[in-house]
Amino acid sequence: xxxxxxxxxxxxxxxxxxxxxxxxxxxxxxxxxxxxxxxxxxxxxxxxxxxxxxxxxxxxxxxxxxxxxxxxxxxxxxxxxxxxxxxxxxxxxxxxxxxxxxxxxxxxxxxxxxxxxxxxxxxxxxxxxxxxx
Length: 133
Fold this sequence. Notes:
Elements: E1 9-15, H1 22-25, H2 36-51, E2 59-70, E3 79-90, E4 93-101, E5 106-118, H3 119-131
Antiparallel strand pairs: 1-3, 2-5, 3-4, 4-5
């Protein structure tokens, strides 16, 4: 892992489609609005994009903590853009401020933490755990 500078920024964008809606996989009685879990996934992807250039081959970063507020509803068809910037680096632990907007307004904000991992080592741990079932 290379040194990750404070302020490093990343983004992630999508257009809200039917499979992104809360009514599709949580509560069918809800109107056609963007779901919180998908908004969080956008924020996590923005955070990963902020640090990808600093990862060595065979490394990635996994989410370990998220604290966000979903502030406004977004209908299907709107464009969503998540942004993340690095606020702290402590060894392999990286903290971010995250925000998400639709075409009209800010729809979410908060903080996120990722830990840089060796992908092969993580895969071995997962395989070992799976073998115990």
